[in-house]
Each structure stands twice: as C-alpha cells, then as structure tokens.
Amino acid sequence: MRRLLITHAKALVGTHAPGVSLVAGADMARLPCVEDGWMLVEDGLIRALGPMATLPALAPGDDLHTVDATGLYVLPGWCDPHTHTVFAAPREEEFVDKIKGLSYQEIAAKGGGILNSARKLRDMDEDLLFAQAKERLHEMMQRGTTAVEIKSGYGLSLESELKMLRVVKRLKEALPLPIKATLLAAHALPPEYREDRAAYIRLIADTLIPQVSGEGLADFVDVFCETNYFTVAELEQVLEAGARHGLPGKVHVNQFTSIGGIQAAIKHGALSVDHLEVMEEADVDALVGAFGGAPSRSTPLRLRSAWVDVTGAHREDDARGPIPTLLPSCSFFLRIPYGPARQLIDRGLPVALATDHNPGSTPSGNMNLVFSLACIQLRMLPEEAINAMTLNAAAAMGLAHTVGSLTVGKRANLIITKPVPSLAYLPYAFGQDHIDTVLIDGIPVRTGSALA
Ligand code: NIG
Ligand code: FE
C-alpha cells in the first residue's frame, strides 16, 4: 500500500459530500472547505480527510509519506471538459490576419480555419501527432489539469478522423490523467462534399459512428452547429446516430449565432452545450426548462445538487438538461462576446468552464487563465469558478463520480498551491503561477517545494 498524508492545509477546498456531482444556481457559490485540514491518500484514492483536530494516529511505516501543507491550499485538480488538443500545427499566421482586422469567418472563407488544420493533419504521421499532443498534455498537467476531454475534428475524412481518435486512445494509455474522447467529424464540411452535404452526414452517421463506437474509440459525439458550418437538422442526425451507438452529445452551439442548436441538444439528451457566446432569451429559457424549471425570469430554478450516483449512473427521477459549458479564453482570443454566466447561474442553472484549447480560436490549455477570465469577464465569484472548473467540469465529461472534488473514494487528483493569502488571490493575481504541486492518483506530475 502507498500512503500520502497531507497535514495542516490552509484549507481543503471543494470537499463536496459523496453523491453530489453537479452544483447549480445559488449552490455554485457554496464551495465546501475544511480549514486547517488533513487528507489521507491510499493507493491513489482519497481515503479520509478532516480538520487537524480529528487527525487519527496512523500506523507509521516506510510506505507513509507526509506533506506539511501549512499555508497552502489543496484543491481538486482542474478538469477541462472541452479541448481540441490533438492538432498538427499552430496557426499563428491567422492570428496576425486577425490583428489586421479579418474575422474568424473571413479567415475560414479564404482557406484558413478548421480546413487549414485538416489539410495539415491529413499529411501528418500518427506517431508525431501523438508525441506533440502528449507534450501539450504534459504542459497542461503542469498547470493543474488532471482530467481532460479531447475532440477529433481536424480529420474530416474516415481515415483522418480515425487517426485522431487512435492518437487520443494512445494518450489515454500513455498518460496518468483520465481522458475522454469525442468524435467531432462534423466540425467543418470537407471541400470534396461541397456539392453533397448529405453524403458527409451519412458517412458520419452510418460509418464513422458505428465503427468508432464498436472499436471503443470515442465516448461522445460533437457537432459544430453554426451558420456556415452544420445545421440544426444535421446536428440532430448526428446526435441520433450517436444515441443509437451509446455516444451522448457534447456540442458546439451558439458561438456566433443562435439557430436552435440548444433546443435540439436538449431534445436529444446531450451531456453538455458548449460555447454559448450568443444567447437569446429563448435559449436560456429552454435550458431552464430542460432542468425542470418554469421559464419565469423572476423565479430562479431550484435544482437538487445530486444528479448522478457514485457509480456514475444518472438518476432517473431528476430532470437533467445539458450542462452549459463556457469557454472564456476563446472569447478573449477571438474578441467575441463572453457567455452569460451570471444570467445562467442567476436563473438557477449549473455552469462548467473549459479551455477549448485548439490552434484556431484558443491556443492555450491553461485553466488558470480561464479562472481569471471567468471572474473578471464572466463575473463569476471565485467559489463559483472553482466549482465550474472542478465538479461541474467533471460532470460535463461524465467523470463526476471519480474526480472533481475532495471526496472520500475519489481519485487523488490534486493541486497544492504555493503560499497565497486567499482563494480569491488565485484568479486576482492573473498570469502568475500559483501552483506548487500537482498529483494524479496521489503521484506527483509536478513536484514543488511542498513535497521536498
Ligand atoms: O471550439 N468553433 C469550432 N471549433 C473550435 C475552433 C476550431 C478552429 O478554429 O480550429 C472552437 O472554437
Ligand atoms: Fe471547441
């Protein structure tokens, strides 16, 4: 047995009760903490925790390693439920075009954007793609990310989409953090299907989804449902095919225009709706309705906080809509509106946060930047943002039963901070590195002075 005892933590943060796997509305500002805390990790799992006054006498032994965390916070590692971290090459030339005044859509129209990434990826050797993505994930783990979702979507052909998902599968095997894979073949229409869109959707629904599901290459399906990309009807076809093969949806909707993607995602039981930079009143009402609330703006929805049991199974008796997942570093980079976090939370909904790490709209996989932007631009309280980047983010990729909070029985995927005066200091002193140590399954992936 391997044991790690953390003592005297300034606070253990996010000590949600077992079974609480999503927090919503006013509950998002409630971040349970244990001050002056201890935590025992055994064989990679959180075994017990409490305030120092309750620390039991532990049998000493060579297997017991003690960390004195005086002045340091212990948090659940960040969970990043929306990334495109497997890609062939950065696109900083488009960044310069953007500085000169071109929009995301104008860059796409002149052959840049997603199709640019797809051209580069088609020619790229699978081993190199894997090695580069692994390097990026190492960097993300250094920054505190301890669970991640990764999408395909730069393949846009049977072979290349499968190549991307095989890379994600190898990453799952090679890296210690939990990784979820999402098939995003409907990311942009490949030029060879310009005259026959339906044929591409058939390729996804009738060939790719069955094959990917059969080979266990994906956990979810995604569609970029947007003007000039994929329609609501096409989103529905892909989500229906996903549902037939056990792959729930996690979808890109309302990034630039509101065209009904949210309502379709709700209808097909999607796990999350991501982006939401452009939201009409009706879109928010639909989400409130999906979580069992009445569409009255003056009575916020009151959700029960437990949505899945400890085994990860959804509870039948709860109305549960797709988790709104906001990507503020994408808004920052593209200079587009920020998602309406305040409105969603004030209406009683849950919010999750993610990076959207990708070469076109968010060349950063740093959740600490997302934390600052969530507080500064989305006006989320630090406690709300932490819940959104841990428990709710884990829920947005179906992992809330194993990670996302400091709860007995969960994996010991942890951040130990440097000495900081308060939790609010973390997003406040933006751009600085406040992380000392990162552990996954109780094993350091970043070793700071706390472990020395
Ligand atoms: O989530 N919006 C669609 N997909 C990505 C961007 C992809 C790209 O530009 O390469 C996003 O922002
Ligand atoms: Fe994305």
Explain what this protein looks like in three dimensions.
The chain is of the alpha/beta class. The chain has two domains: 3-77 and 405-451, Urease, subunit C, domain 1 (Roll); 79-395, TIM Barrel (Alpha-Beta Barrel). Helices cover 32% and strands 20% of the residues. It has 15 helices and 16 strands. It has helices at 92-99, 104-109, 113-122, 126-142, 158-174, 197-214, 232-244, 261-267, 281-290, 328-334, 341-346, 367-376, 382-389, 391-395, 425-428; strands at 3-13, 33-42, 45-51, 64-68, 73-76, 78-80, 145-151, 179-186, 220-225, 250-253, 272-275, 323-326, 352-353, 414-417, 435-440, 443-446. A hairpin with a 2-residue loop joins strand 15 (435-440) and strand 16. Helix 6 runs parallel beside helix 7 (232-244). The radius of gyration is 21 Å and the shape is globular. The two termini are 21 Å apart. The protein binds N-(iminomethyl)-L-glutamic acid and fe (iii) ion. N-(iminomethyl)-L-glutamic acid (NIG) binds at residues 113-114, 117, 224, 252, 255, 330, 356, 358-361.
Principal-axes shape call: globular
Bound molecules: N-(iminomethyl)-L-glutamic acid, fe (iii) ion
Average pLDDT confidence is 94
Distance between the termini: 21 Å
Give the strand content: 15-25%
Looking at the overall shape, the CATH architecture of the largest domain is Alpha-Beta Barrel
Question: Could you provide a short overview of the structure?
Answer:
This protein has 15 helices and 16 strands. With 452 residues, it is of the alpha/beta class.
List keywords for this structure.
2 domains, binds fe (iii) ion, eight-stranded mixed β-sheet, alpha/beta, eight-stranded parallel β-sheet, Urease, subunit C, domain 1, 452 residues, binds N-(iminomethyl)-L-glutamic acid, single chain, TIM Barrel
